[in-house]
Amino acid sequence: MLSRTGTDAAAVHRWTRLVDGATTTLPAGSYWGSAGTDLIVSQRGAVFTLTDMSGATEPVVIDTSAFNTAVTRYTVDRVVGESLLMTATVNGAEEFHLVSLGENGQVRDRKLDLAEGSRARFSYASGPDSLAVSYAEPIPNGYYRGRLSTVDVATGAITASHYFLPEANYTAIAVTPTHLTWVLGPYGSNPQLQVLSRATGSPLATTPLVRRETIGLTVHHVGDWVALVKPGGGTATSPHPYTPLVARSLDGGADVPLLAHAGSVASSPDGSLLALGGTLAHGEGLYRIAPDPVTGKPIATLLRTFNQPSALMVLRENLPTTGTFDFDRAGGKLTVGWTLSRFNARTTLTLTHTASGRSAKVVQEPREGVTAQSLTWDGLYKDGLPAFNGAYTWTVTAVPANGVGPAVERKGTFTLTRAPRPHDFDDNGSPDVLARHSDGNLFSYDIRQVWGLDAYERPYELPIGGGWNGYDRILAAGNLGGTRTGDTVARDKSGVLWFYEGKSGHKAPFAPRARIGGGWGIYDQLATGSDVTGDGRPDLLASDRAGVLWLYRGTGNAKSPFATRKKIGGGWGVYNQLTATGNLAGATAGDLVARDKDGVLWLYLGKGDGTFAPRTRIGGGWSLFPHLIGIGDVNGDGRNDLLAASRDATDDTVLHLYRGTGQWKTPFAPAQTDTVEQLAWARHLF
To answer: Transmembrane stretches, by residue range (predicted)?
Structure first.
């Protein structure tokens, strides 16, 4: 059997001996096989050499240079027995010619007797005495109709002819000394496989085919059976009903499965079929297909193995390990991968948060020739919400894209963890903004998710509870009590300050409130979330109505989160908003921004001892924003950002994100804006 791998100049031809499966790699060049024989043809210019690979006969040389010229170029279409079926373009029309050596050793060139002006299309052969050709035959008014004709190879005469109406599938045609088979109506709603008797010209069998799936289908006869397959299914990237090679009886009945796929099929001298393909049981190799001597049904027998599985196999793998997975240390991503036995598989990584049931999925589509598949999870759920910390289950699945064989799967668990983040209330490593409705209900929204959605898309909304209208100040305080997630303090209208400790929960982020103390109504402005004393704990700053700024150092004790106040200095009454931003300029201490009554924003760099360096002007025009929020690091670049909110003409909330630069002279980059319809109801953001 002659086989080829590669294309064009890189093609490699091999001859496989059927008796023992031994394979010989042929010298570089162009080769054709003669169906049903041990002959192969090689070409050197216009000279063709027929070699009997069994060694039974001497090579035959056919020199076509007398007529195969630059003016009239002959091209080999196929080899039938010891004859070359060639095509030649004459007067604009492609003709079929049978070229062989006569008894006198002279080269014979016999043009097939087709209607004048016919255009050659394709040819078909299953042995040295079986040949059919398809062509377009001219009819009046400049139109053509399809013809399929059988040919006497010895004489070149047309022995029978059939119309292709209304259309033809030129690949699904087979001819033997006794049968002629093709597909009726391949593009219609009811395609059928028709088998004719060559002796009578009458149909022996007409059986249905799958609608719209006959393109590329090939048919081959083996005894009183027809083998059906679409070659190339082994490397296909989508399933096809004719990827498996099956045999269909002319007497009816169910198809008999033979191979999981086949790359090519050829006729053997003994009437059997030879197929390069595979089965799930025996893998890739060369198979002989012939009737079972006992049952009469065709069976596939492995002649030579290629030592490769047909089923999808995992050769190497890099999968998550059980235990704790530090997402920060991994650079904010989880990468898994494996090397598969073939490239055409679709790999999916699915991760599910055990407590919430939320999931993420990463899919790697097949890439031609690439068996090493890698999937990287960016830490987001399907809706763009950063994933919660906690226990996860994971599944990595590779599904054969061509439908050949079962999927392979691996499963496991791990616990996702990150370092605590400021302004993170649901323990997912991403800052959240608190939004209060006019009815007093408080909700949390993940800013990283909100920023990634379109205006009309609904972000994840974490309900916190009602009754928050009783507070005139609500502050995201950072980690005051030692838990993983951020805490909140709120002042009621009677001047009592309350503490809401973060619970690291994705459902109820805060513990029940605890009273810090009364007398806080004397303060006009409150700001918390920055560590201005350099001890690693967030502190609270408060300016009274006389313009004096006071420091309440964080203690790290949830029962008593703040130490006794300490006076910082006067002159702060010029500001109508103070916002603790954390570290903006690269030093260890937290910083503060303050907006004066003219709308100018000023930066106070923390010195680490509770005091600040002299103020520097950031810029004017900040009166536009009723809310300025030290939101933390939104984009994951390690710098704290500033979030501002305004409203547009339709009363939708417009968020303005000022990304931190790390430079004290210009601490914020120009604003990026995002309109969020879903926050239109929110009258207060914290």
So the answer is: none
pLDDT at 482: 75
Positive or negative: CA dihedral 428, 429, 433, 434: positive
Amino acid letter for position 133: V
Query: Smallest Cα–Cα separation from 277: which of 289, 260, 290, 292?
Result: 260
The answer to whether 232 and 294 are in contact (CB under 8 A) is no
Closest C-alpha to 285, from 300, 264, 298, 303: 303
Exposure pattern of 317-349 as b/e (b: 16+ CB <10 Å)?
eeebeeeebebeeeeeebebbbebbbbbbbbbb
Percent of the chain residues topping a pLDDT of 90? 74
**Alpha helices (runs of H) in 408-508, residue ranges in sequence order:** 447-452
* Both tokens assigned to 591: 């910083």
Cis ω for the linkage preceding 140 (within 30 of 0): no
Positive or negative torsion for Cα 62, 63, 66, 72: positive
Helix or strand or coil: residue 451? helix
Q: What mean pLDDT value characterizes the chain?
A: 92
Query: How does DSSP assign 42-74, residue by residue?
Result: EEETTEEEEEETTSSS--EEEE-TTT--SSS-E
Note the pLDDT of residue 165.
Answer: 57
**DSSP codes, 488-546:** EEEEETTS-EEEE-B---SS--BPPPEEEES-GGGEEEEEEEE--SSSSS-EEEEEETT
What is the reported pTM? 0.83
What is the rounded CA–CA span in Å between residue 602 and residue 596? 8
**Alpha carbons 94 and 114: distance in angstroms, whole number:** 11
DSSP 376-390: EE-SB-TTSPBPPSE
**What is the SS3 assignment for 198?**
coil
